[in-house]
Amino acid sequence: MQQKPGSGIPWQVSLSAFLLVFAMWAPMYCVPPMESILREQLLISHAQLSLLYSAPVIMVAALAIPGGLLADRIGFKKAAGIGAILIAVGTVLRGTAHSPTTLLAFTFIYGTGFGLAYPNIPKLASVWTPSERTGTTTGLFNLGLPVGSAMAMALTMQVVYPVTNTFQGAFLLWSVPPVAAAIAWWVLVQERPVGTAYQPGSGNIESSGGFGRVIRNRNLWILLSLLLLNEFYMSTMMGWSPALLGMKGATPELAGLISSVIPWAAVPAVLLMPRLCDKVGLRRPFLWAPSIALAVAALVALNADLAMTWLVMAVIGVSVPTRFITILTLVVELMPDRDVGTASGLVFTGYIGGVIGPYIAGRILDTSGTFSSALMVLVGVSIATAFISLGLPETGHRTRSHPKASA
User: Fold this and answer.
1) Which of 75, 146, 301, 303 is the most buried (most CB within 10 A)?
2) Which helix (H) or strand (E) holds 115?
3) Closest residue by Cα to residue 175 from 271, 93, 109
4) Residue 403 domain-assigned?
């Protein structure tokens, strides 16, 4: 195992990780607030719009394994750095799209970079953090997710879109963070802490049999299932909440603002819940308890008025990232360090849930005109997540033995 620094993580590493995660998610979540504009100008259905929104997640699911393997071979800095460049290129090109086909193609370029870069965030935490602080560090590195999502949901229709009054202009303005993140990553991030034994390529699957070893790990498949269900819920609510709120009488601007409560509430959750999890010394309660809360939230959302939806969104905003960060932490804790990149890639194929959920909801909306059935599906997904999480071993420090794989 590599030696890890006992002192704080360099600000350059934390800043670069934050910017990169921000740049991955903000360009994706600027799509839902522009839902009516995109459908009207591109002449597409709700289901087709869901693909424009979730295309980056498709590429995360498709390329997570190659991205993880690439990190184990050449190091996470180069693997994520290549992804950062593709994210920047793809988001810039989206600002030139004038048809659904070209917009989807450019979004896939952005998504390709997403798929290569994102599996390396757990690897970054694994390299730079002592094992007792992996939860806190994973949450810190992923803070860009709720902040980027919240800003995109809240500001796209309020501030960004009015600057140019075109969806192309909005996409172009949201490409600025990816360009800045790519530059910061290549300039500021080191491959490893000075004086550690970590070497890029140590996880070469041909020499160590890492891939075969990882896929035989039962816990990995449970984590993959949990992430799939988590993203099914999260992407469905984030993608379609503006439309749901619009049906309850909200203007596009207000719908975007209320929807942004989900990621804004996630900001303190990402910062505080991993610390609480580490302090409590247990992991599984931070999976099944939020799942129960999310089932209740989906039920309440069925008949909630606009005033109540602020609270519903806040509950979702706390619960979903709590599960998400716990899952990422367990990837680090349940897998040997040399396999974390590969394992992250495999687990991240669960992001396909972030495609399936919004598409099903879009189809339901196209055929029925309401979200009632989609919300009931989310209730079932949440209950299933709670039960599946009980199949994982407990890795918190309150347990005497640590089940991290050793070979």
Assistant:
1) 146
2) helix 100-117
3) 93
4) no
Tokens found for residue 222: 């449970």
**Residue 4 dihedral angles phi and psi, to the nearest 5°:** -120, 150
| Residue for token pair 């005109």 | 369
Range of the domain at 259: 11-193+209-389
Q: What is the CATH number of the domain that holds 260?
A: 1.20.1250.20
What is the C-alpha to C-alpha distance for residues 238 and 306, in angstroms, rounded to an integer?
Answer: 16
What is the number of domains present in the chain?
Answer: 1
- pTM of the entire predicted model: 0.77
Contact criterion met (CB below 8 Å) for 98 and 168: yes
Instruction: Quickly list H helices, 118-217.
Output: 120-128, 134-141, 144-155, 161-164, 167-173, 176-188, 205-208, 210-215
Q: Is residue 298 part of a domain?
A: yes
**pLDDT at res. 3:** 42
In a domain, 331, yes or no: yes
Q: Give tens-digit pLDDT for 101-120.
A: 999 999 999 999 998 888 77
